[in-house]
Every structure is written in C-alpha cells, then in structure tokens.
Specification:
The chain has about 100 residues and is an alpha+beta fold. It has one domain (about 10-100). About 20% of the residues lie in helices and about 30% in strands. It has one helix and five strands. The protein has one helix spanning about 80-100; strands at about 10-15, 35-40, 45-50, 60-65, 75-80. The protein has a five-stranded antiparallel beta sheet, with helices on one face. β2 (about 35-40) and β3 (about 45-50) form a beta hairpin. The chain starts with 9 loop residues before the first strand and ends with a helix.
C-alpha cells in the first residue's frame, strides 16, 4: 500500500493507495486514468492517473487544476515510478500552497 498521509488536502477519490511499492508491471491491471483526486482550498484540484490506462509503456500524470479549468492545467508532470510519483505529488502540493 502507498502511504498518502503526507497529503494535506481533502482526498475525494483514491485508488492510488491500493498500489503496492513493487514493480508496476506486476500491477498493470490497476493502472488507469482515474487514480487520485485531492481538493485544496476550494480552488485547486490535484489529479493523478496513469496514461494510457493499463499500458505498461504509460506513465503517471499529475495535474494541478485551478478553478476547475481542466483545459489549462496550472501544472502537468509525469512519473514512471512510484518514488518519482510521490516526489511529483509533493511538488504539486507546494505549488498549490504558493498559489493561494
């Protein structure tokens, strides 16, 4: 299980924490577009998904959305491992907190 206790916002959807900290190729059936959504300050969303779904050649995408403007994310980053994903989520949270 992935520990998400470092997240400071309100988790509204979570299937990410069910992943194990093992090779992603052993968990391909769980890698999909909708994995995690977190609300911050009623103005920002942090969204995490795997693109393309169920494709081992894909990657996690981390989006910061402001004022529900999905067409123009405030930030977009990618990660190919769980370790890098956690780093990108922390960086996204830092951006959100600075933007407030």
């Amino acid at each position: 299980m992935i520990d998400l206790t470092f997240i400071t916002g309100k988790i509204t959807y979570d299937e990410l924490s069910a992943l194990r900290n093992i090779d992603l190729s052993n968990q391909i059936d769980f890698l999909k577009e909708d994995m995690l959504q977190v609300e911050y300050h009623d103005t920002h969303l942090l969204d995490v998904g795997w693109y393309p779904s169920f494709d081992i050649n894909g990657s996690f995408q981390i989006r910061v959305i402001k004022n529900y403007d999905w067409d123009i994310p405030l930030a977009l980053s990618k990660a190919g491992t769980i370790r890098l994903l956690i780093e990108e989520i922390i960086a996204a949270q830092n951006l959100i907190n600075k933007d407030e």
